[in-house]
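User: Here's a structure from my thesis project, written as structure tokens. My advisor, Dr. K., wants to see whether a designed sequence matches the one we expressed. Can you design one independently, without my sequence as a hint?
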């Protein structure tokens, strides 16, 4: 059997990966950190129900990394 590449990681991203994120990330990066699928993440963002702060910049969603880290219990 193959080992799960994400074993020991929080929702597919390691702690180091999460702490190295820029000030804001795209919705797909945030979805990966939260273990959300693409469709579900965009649906939540569109409804204003995403679990952390989302900025809409034209047709692009950005997630504030500080809020994402806080939600994951990794805030400084």
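Assistant: Designed independently from the structure alone:
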């Amino acid at each position: 059997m193959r080992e799960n590449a994400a074993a020991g990681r929080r929702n597919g991203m390691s702690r180091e990966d999460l702490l190295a994120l820029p000030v804001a990330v795209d919705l797909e990066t945030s979805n990966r950190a939260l273990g959300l699928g693409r469709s579900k993440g965009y649906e939540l963002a569109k409804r204003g129900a995403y679990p952390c702060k989302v900025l809409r910049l034209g047709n692009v969603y950005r997630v504030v990394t500080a809020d994402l880290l806080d939600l994951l219990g990794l805030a400084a």
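When you compare it with your expressed construct, this may help: Confidence is low (pLDDT under 50) at residues 1-10.
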